[in-house]
Amino acid sequence: MEQQPDPRVTHLVRTVMRAFYDSEYVVVMEALLRSNRIREERLVDMLHFSPKQTSRILNQLRSDQLIRCEENVAERGTGLGTGNIYWIDYRLFIDSVKYHITAMRLSLSADKKDNTCVYPYYCPKCRRKYDALAAQRHVDIETKDFLCCFCNVELNEVEASEPSITSPSSTPSPTPTPSPLTTSSVSPPSGSDGSTSSSPTNPLQRLNEALAPISRLLIEIDELAKAAKELEQEGEDQMPYDPFAPPTK
User: Fold this and answer.
1) How far is CA 145 from the centre of its chain?
2) Whether residue 53 has pLDDT greater than 80
3) What phi and psi values does residue 143 have, to the nearest 5 degrees?
4) Which of 76, 109, 136, 187 has the smallest CB count inside 10 Å?
5) Domain spans of the chain?
């Protein structure tokens, strides 16, 4: 009897897809969950998507390291020529999700650190820049205004509509390759009635709250994989349970 992946593993796949991806990606991944290995032409027929749309979705999922592909495969008895076969590699999927979650958290932490280097005040005369702490060291006792320590001129505050004045040593980060697995696309957790809980103002806290269900599933799956490995090391006669159940060719 062919093993199936642990329900927690498939639940993780569905949770990640619904949190980060549009419905067309969710539908394709659901078909892969139910079919293990499936030809691209079969997906087109099942989902009534155009070949171009199906290929675009599969290429994106493959680029995000969520699925695998075996190219130019000829299956006997199908009457079809060579084609691509896709399936979910659950170990690859989990590793990819862990990587993207870590990358998102590091990115937000870096953004938070960069924000502390912003200079919100500047002198309109000499154009020197001051951060919030430095500006408080030069205050007019009577007016309580921040003053330039060189020109003794009241400092101006950078307006929200103006470009941020940052440290000259700071350099812009390269633009990453667009992917649905980004912080901008993560959906907040919803209650049983479909309502969303109020999110904290801190972006990192919002991300952690949104990713809480996924993080819990990853912890459970890690514990499951550890237990399966311990069974395998015991050298029992029966084949140990594989929670990832790789598809058979």
Assistant:
1) 44
2) yes
3) -90, -15
4) 76
5) 1-115+175-249, 118-169
What six digits make up the tokens of 155?
A: 């400092």
CATH fold for domain 118-169? Herpes Virus-1 (3.30.40)
Given a contact cutoff of 8 angstroms between Cβ atoms, the answer to whether 117 and 166 are in contact is yes
> Which amino acid would we find at residue 168?
P
Return the amino acid letter for 9.
Answer: V
Contacts 24+ apart (CB under 8 A), 103-108: 104/181, 104/182, 104/183, 104/186, 104/207, 105/204, 105/207, 105/208, 107/183, 108/183, 108/203, 108/204, 108/207
User: At 106, is the secondary structure helix, strand, or coil?
Assistant: helix
DSSP 202: S
Distances (CA, A) of 210 to 206, 239, 240: 6, 38, 34
- CATH code for 1-115+175-249? 1.10.10.10
From the list 167, 130, 166, the residue with the least C-alpha distance to 150 is: 130
Report the SS3 class of residue 239: coil
Ramachandran category for residue 77: left, alpha or beta (phi over 0 → left; psi -120 to 50 → alpha): left
Q: Which two tokens stand for residue 144?
A: 């309580």
What's the confidence (pLDDT) of residue 33? Answer: 93
Confidence grade of residue 22 (pLDDT, cut at 50, 70, 90): very high
Q: Smallest Cα–Cα separation from 146: which of 163, 160, 129?
A: 129
